[in-house]
Amino acid sequence: xxxxxxxxxxxxxxxxxxxxxxxxxxxxxxxxxxxxxxxxxxxxxxxxxxxxxxxxxxxxxxxxxxxxxxxxxxxxxxxxxxxxxxxxxxxxxxxxxxxxxxxxxxxxxxxxxxxxxxxxxxxxxxxxxxxxxxxxxxxxxxxxxxxxxxxxxxxxxxxxxxxxxxxxxxxxxxxxxxxxxxxxxxxxxxxxxxxxxxxxxxxxxxxxxxxxxxxxxxxxxxxxxxxxxxxxxxxxxxxxxxxxxxxxxxxxxxxxxxxxxxxxxxxxxxxxxxxxxxxxxxxxxxxxxxxxxxxxxxxxxxxxxxxxxxxxxxxxxxxxxxxxxxxxxxxxxxxxxxxxxxxxxxx
Length: 347
Fold this sequence. Notes:
Order of helices and strands: EEEHHEHEEHHEEEHEEEHHHEHEHH
Oligomer: single chain
Strand content: 15-25%
Largest sheet: 6 strands, mixed
């Protein structure tokens, strides 16, 4: 059986197609993703879903489709309910094969979702928990993607998050709205140190939409051009010089005022600030749940999550013990396909 698992986010739509044998064992996983800003291009969702599948195999080879989502939060929708139902309706229109959705209560049918749409809102982390449990039965999995960081406790192989909605998880430390690519630097910076001429000064930042975290990690060689899939804030390119120019603006400066060495120093200090931001939340969940093993995944697993957990003295494992690095980037899509296969087999 060949199952397609989609994770439809506000900015990126991820796909994992998994081949299962007759016993439900995984024979092969292939993945892909597309930058799709749902706040302004949600009308192209159907085209993107089909194109993603056909980038891997013919659509007719797919025997079932599973969908998780976080796109319902984008401001193209007045409410989350409207967003969930738009994704459900668009998906239902293009797939005439079994279709299932990841919810806070497990995998549900289209009819179930229409009766209780909010159960599917921001539930993609539910799909990642079973993968984390294959690595450690008791752990906290930390998944930093382009935009957000999930910090989800798992005990006895099952997620046990205290918060269920995004809003609740923002209060429990289980969601930090910070990511590897799309986060405005001023969202987690107040002041940033810079040493020039042997003197260190702390500079308050210009709170404009100048640079994003992708610019930092390009300058530091922690991501490549293929990873920088989102738009730039100034509409310019993604070279190191263009990234540096955007970073300079955060200090209301430019590349005539700051050298590339200054920019790298700034980038390193900003990187450490984001690590501390994530470490604070990991520490909160770890202390509350008395769990000392962290399983990291997502694009930011080694850039942000591992150093954050290690700074707290926690035991760190990586989801690449079960998935490849490429598959870790779309872990919720992989989990969605796995849970969908189980749901369809038992339906």
